[in-house]
Amino acid sequence: MKEKKLGAYAFRFADQAINSVAQIWSVGWDEQSSPIYNWSGLERKDINKCIFQYTLSGYGKIDINNKTYRVQPGQAFIVHSPSDYRYYLPDESGKWEFLYLTLYGHEAEKCWNFVKKRTNQVIRIHPESSLIQLLKQILSEATNKKITNPYQGSSYAYQFIMGLYDYLSNMDHIMDDWPESIISAVLFAKNCYQQEIGPEEMAEASGLSRYHFTREFKRTTGLTPIQYLTKIRIEKAVQLLQNTKYTIEEIAVFVGYNNANYLNKVFQKVVGMSPGNVRKHQGDILSKDFFL
């Protein structure tokens, strides 16, 4: 999906048993440049639908329960119809380019209720996150006419719902008051920690100079960039050690280290014990128990 391929795709599968669990209603890539673009959650006819819309460029606005939110690149809103919302292109915005996915079924409804409890319905999501990559995959499959039956549609809908649960469960609300540059760097680290990245790449993601970024990052988070990245990797490694049967070598590679030996050195320094001992003490060691 390197080239811009605007398009909208609707699915009207007839199998109610499958559809009632989770199903795709529509998916698309759109760009609006007219203030005529305006959707009200109390007036639209496609009821009992959950709408996920992710901004790629430009921006739009959404009113939810008498509050107005600006939905900028890297942000998404999640709404349910019917409910009290209105999203639109404001007069001062030249365009709003976005991806969207509309789902229905009782699993989509359950996820929507979870969203309402966890967020204000407008959330930041890094463009390289697995959730957005999945959305792009669904759109690509729709574009190439590869979603041809209700089982395929339901499978993608359920994958996206589970991905959204996973993302929201790990979302850090402490970032709400942080500068956008630092948020961008943190989201980059959270979504790309498996790769060979470091402070230089985090600074690039922030849009700041390396020197300014390092000072601003430490002032905001209380940690240096490398400490924060290491914290992310160790937390994930602890989860994998305690909840999977992957080898330590496999876990090391998965969290962004070259080998088990290097992971062992980091664990000894940060956690105070080896990965093997962490695995033996399941339930006794939580990521919140150690600080860098």
UniProtKB/TrEMBL annotation:
InterPro entries per UniProt: AraC-bd, Homeodomain-like_sf, HTH-like, HTH_AraC
Family matches, as Gene3D superfamilies: Homeodomain-like (1.10.10.60), Regulatory protein AraC (2.60.120.280)
PROSITE patterns: HTH_ARAC_FAMILY_2
Organism superkingdom: Bacteria
Pfam families given in the database record: AraC_binding, HTH_18
Keywords, sorted A to Z: DNA-binding, Transcription, Transcription regulation
A Gene Ontology molecular function term of the record: sequence-specific DNA binding
Domain HTH araC/xylS-type: 183-281
Keyword DNA-binding tagged: yes
Tagged with keyword DNA-binding: yes
Protein name: Helix-turn-helix transcriptional regulator
Lineage of producing organism: Bacteria, Bacillati, Bacillota, Bacilli, Bacillales
